[in-house]
Design goal:
about 475 residues, alpha/beta, Cytidine Deaminase, domain 2, 2 domains, 9-stranded mixed β-sheet, 13 helices
């Protein structure tokens, strides 16, 4: 399903909600990055909001405003500097006001569009109107490009909370009937959250023990659009952990097997199975249109890509890991699980030291070159087959999916954590929060959040 989504970090939506409390109209310029996936789904990635300074208002009322060009020329220069597209932003204040554009709004758009394009050196111009809608805001917006006008269909707020708001002139997601099979979900989570689950597009990278358990839970919760990514085929040892697998699945791609299983669970689910690695640029690009990604891969190179996707595309990533250790006598010495949530402004997996960078580099080398470098001592030896038990992979998958639900519902503490560590052997769970390293790509001050399309993609080198 093609759609255009405006993805907004929580600090920008907080600013919008603050100005909506003003009884007078407020204006500004929203700078966005752009990205589109191969199917045509477009992402507008909010990077900066520049509100018009008070001194630039000539007139400011509840039903209109007049400003000087000094109110926005600096923001247009900033858009050109960082390679962003400028959206003209303004509010329609007042309780239960409408964000639908007025005749004056349309006239102002015509007057501003050429100036915005000229000053930003961009071929695109857009507008965003926000209004008060009870405790949340409503909106309408569009983006004019050389190929025509694109309506903004939905606004996806990402941060400690996740909120999906359909455009006021696109009510399909709000009015869709909730099937009776989700009645128990609705009683626990509420009808609005069930509608959001139904509308989300979620990727699962890695379809083994953890990934297959995540995907099955998502479908049973009501998620209807999934992208599954895995380059491996099912082996005999996978059958004890991978949901949906049977002896007849041996030798088939894991993502393909899991997709067929999920389709049997629900006739209404749309599943795209990708036989390949997230370390492939085109496959990584296929996740641009997703709202959330679960990282269930056990390779370090794949986690590097997911970590960058979270920052450059403002894509929430919930990364999972399970590590079982034993001694020479095959006695269990440790069972550890990890769930890390990557959202704009939070530390990435590199800053958290959750990735072995040397192994990540070795994993993307051709097998013969990797062997040569290992023999010469320039590359670490990669681990063999790791221990795995369905009980623990399923438990970590459940905790990961619960983190998605918590951010949609908000049933946990206001000060949300970004990582959960589970020590099964000690029967202990701990949580933590980590900040980005100064200047790293996940640090807001680095200017990479929401960059969108870049050359090379995600500003990293890709294997040919």
């Amino acid at each position: 399903m093609k759609n255009t989504t405006l993805v907004v970090p929580e600090w920008i939506t907080t600013s919008i909600k603050d100005v909506l409390a003003d009884e007078r109209e407020t204006a500004g310029v929203l700078l966005v990055g752009l990205a589109s996936d191969p199917s045509g789904r477009t992402r507008l990635l909010a990077r900066e909001l520049h509100l018009v300074p008070q001194g630039a208002y000539v007139e400011r009322r509840h039903d209109g405003l007049t400003i000087t060009s000094e109110g926005y020329v600096h923001a247009l220069g900033r858009a050109e500097e960082i390679g962003a597209v400028a959206l003209w932003f303004h509010t329609h204040p007042g309780a239960n006001s409408s964000p639908m554009p007025s005749a004056k709004d349309l006239r102002v758009d015509r007057e501003l569009s050429e100036l915005f394009r000229l000053r930003t050196s961009s071929e695109s111009y857009g507008t965003l109107i926000c209004a008060s809608d009870g405790n949340r805001f409503s909106f309408t917006g569009y983006l004019d490009t050389t190929e025509g006008r694109i309506r903004i269909d939905r606004l996806w707020e990402v941060g400690r909370r996740l909120r999906l708001t359909p455009a006021a002139d696109s009510l399909s997601e709000r009015t869709r009937q909730i099937p009776a099979i989700f009645d128990r979900n609705v009683r626990a989570l509420g009808g609005n959250v069930q509608q959001i689950l139904n509308a989300l597009s979620i990727a699962v990278v890695g379809c083994g023990g953890t990934g297959s358990a995540v995907a099955e839970q998502l479908v049973r919760l009501g998620v209807r659009n999934l992208v599954l990514v895995d380059p491996d085929v099912l082996s005999e040892s996978n059958l004890t952990r991978v949901y949906g697998s049977t002896p007849t699945s041996l030798g088939k791609n894991k993502a393909v097997v899991l997709a067929a299983h999920l389709r049997r669970l629900s006739r209404g689910v749309h599943v795209e199975a990708i036989d390949g690695s997230i370390n492939n640029e085109q496959i990584a690009r296929s996740l641009i249109g997703c709202d959330v990604t679960f990282g269930c891969t056990d390779d370090n190179a794949g986690r590097l890509v997911l970590s960058r996707l979270a920052a450059y595309l403002l894509l929430p990533v919930i990364d999972c890991g399970v590590l079982i250790t034993s001694n020479a006598s095959d006695a269990l010495t440790g069972i550890d699980g990890r769930v890390t949530v990557l959202t704009p402004g939070a530390a990435c997996l590199v800053c958290r030291n959750r990735i072995d960078l040397q192994r990540a580099q070795a994993e993307v080398l051709p097998a013969d070159e990797r062997k040569l470098r290992q023999d010469e001592g320039y590359a670490p030896a990669l681990p063999g087959i790791e221990p795995a038990v369905v009980t623990f992979t399923t438990a970590v998958a459940a905790i990961a999916v619960a983190e998605l639900l918590e951010r949609l519902v908000g049933y946990g503490p206001e000060e949300r954590i970004s990582e959960i560590l589970i020590r099964f052997h000690d029967r202990e769970i701990s949580t933590n929060v980590a900040s980005p390293r100064a200047g790293h790509y996940c640090d807001p001050s680095a200017g990479k959040l929401g960059l969108g399309e870049s050359d090379p993609f995600l500003e990293q080198m890709w294997a040919s």
